[in-house]
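2024-03-11 09:14:02 DEBUG pipeline.ingest accepted 1 chain
2024-03-11 09:14:02 DEBUG pipeline.ingest length=368
2024-03-11 09:14:03 DEBUG pipeline.predict start
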Amino acid sequence: MEGKGKGRSYLLKYEGLEELFWRLKENYRLIAPKLKGGVILYSEVESLGELPFGYRNVEMPGFYRLDRAEGFFTYTHPVNSLKAFLHPSELTLMKVKISDGGLEFEVCYPEGNFCFFDVRACDLFALEVLDRVFVHKNSHPDSYYRKLREGAFVVAVNCTYATSNCFCTTTGTGPEAREGYDLLITELREGFLLEAGSERGGVLLESLENKREAREEHLLQKRERLREAEALMERHFEIEGLPDRLYGRMDSQHWKHIEKRCLACTSCTQSCPTCFCFDILEKNNLELRESERVRVWDSCFSPAFATVHRYNIRQSVHSRYRQWLMHKFAYWVDQFDLSGCVGCGRCITWCPVGIDIRQEVKTVIREG
């Protein structure tokens, strides 16, 4: 049966899913959701059984819990994002050593060869955002990011469940994975529908032994499961024309109301799958014979972030929050031709005071 992707669609049982996993494991470092410390995290895994099958994340503003559920891909996205692997929180760019009276320079390119397994639609779109930021819309493409991104194999999974913090239907980024993947899995009643989204994905799919061709009814089940996930989410605001509406609210008094609640803790930017701001540090050893140039995550909520010539141009918390929200929904569109928000809701879940970006956008554009 011809699916939406490239080539035929097949139905796999759990054994077929295991075969797919081990075939990928032969050539890639497998990064997938894993249960660690009471939360689901993207981590390197050694077997398919390490995935948190049968668990469901329950999320609300400032709240996270795991429950048990019937099925396999019963959860949404992990707590962290793929940014942690492609744009790590700390990355050594270069080392300088004193050697024979001179200086020896070593550029430290990271090693990757990743397969990202079980990537949801919001995180898939976040990869497209990061690709534009670091490579496609960058006049000086980032060679470190590109080194990790090139050749990465992506196995996406369609969401059949949504938490109360998910709003990918508002941002137009899910719950269906539409492009940017090599293989796509949808869990059905009879097994797992597998579709190819790239030529190399199609080659791997055709080579699997434990599969049978999907029928029209399986594609209809896929549409039904996606509609069920969509029904769990509310449309919070209209994304079309949102940048212009926000630009007209730069002087809204509501920004100052946000300051009374926001702690400027940077949790939202750390958990966001697309926030990319960084700083460059020089780390010297105590003997002063070796130095490392290190790239670390930064945040527009940090007091020193907007300091220019010893003067901070965003001294108030509300000006920093405005910068963050405006960048997501307005400045980003001007810079990269797409929104910086993918509707994953991580910033809502992990805000310690439960600030909900959906409500803040609605209030700003309504009140003026």
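2024-03-11 09:14:41 DEBUG pipeline.report The chain is about 35% helix and 25% strand.
2024-03-11 09:14:41 DEBUG pipeline.predict end
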